[in-house]
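Posting here for the record, re: PRP.
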Amino acid sequence: MSAIPPPSADQDYKATLLPLLMSNNVLSFGTYVLKSGRESPYFFTSSLLHTAPLLRATSAAYASVLSSEPFVTTANGITTPNFDIIFGPAYKGIPISAAVTNELAVRDSLSGSDKGVWDNVSYSFNRKEAKAHGEGGNIVGAPLKGKRVVIVDDVITAGTALREAVGIIENEGGIVAGVVVLLDREERVSDAEPKSAVGVAQRDLGGKIPIRSVIGLHDLIEKLGDKIGEGEVQRLKDYRARYGAE
Ligand SMILES: O=P(O)(O)OC[C@H]1O[C@H](OP(=O)(O)OP(=O)(O)O)[C@H](O)[C@@H]1O
Ligand SMILES: O=C(O)c1cc(=O)[nH]c(=O)[nH]1
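Prediction output follows.
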């Protein structure tokens, strides 16, 4: 475990986040089998983001994206979120949704510009198995009906988790208003679909919904040469040549 710096400023969150993720093995290099069945030379293990400093550092990155246009509109010095709910797909999206909802409000109050702009933003997530007793259902947190919902997740590969999340939100009567992931693996969806999952989602959601990632596979290839060595970078390039999106 390495020392963890405090959440970084907006401008450099990407530069500080990559080494932090690597030194805590959240981002690791080896041979891993993905949900899609592909064999990958790297893996992002967001379940290791279980300490407060790591959670804050990553939440700060999501919050930087979510507090910028087009996720907000700023007019006459007043910022207004263009969404009502931060939705984290089960399981690994769950802590992200709660941490980011908190982070947005906390950093606003720390910066002295607390105008309560985030007070009406809630989090919500799904259960993987519907609950048949008590309050029932499969949504925990804010009800989605009629609300503008931003999806937050750790990783996007083939987009299966994103498609499921969109289905859940629409089924509950919510309106998908955007997507933010920490890592876009920038892979083709399938042999038959050369677009990336983000590209397909952009197309399927009508092209007007903001979909953003903090880090992409290209960042690993461009920025990690001196940390992981040329051999590992070459494995990433080979993987991209085989599975990369068009
Ligand atoms: O774009 P995709 O091909 O769907 O792959 C990425 C998704 O897969 C993983 O979650 P998983 O579905 O394994 O569920 P979990 O959060 O319960 O671990 C990961 O956390 C992403 O949500
Ligand atoms: O595609 C996946 O299954 C996947 C990739 C990755 O880097 N991390 C993860 O949790 N899942």
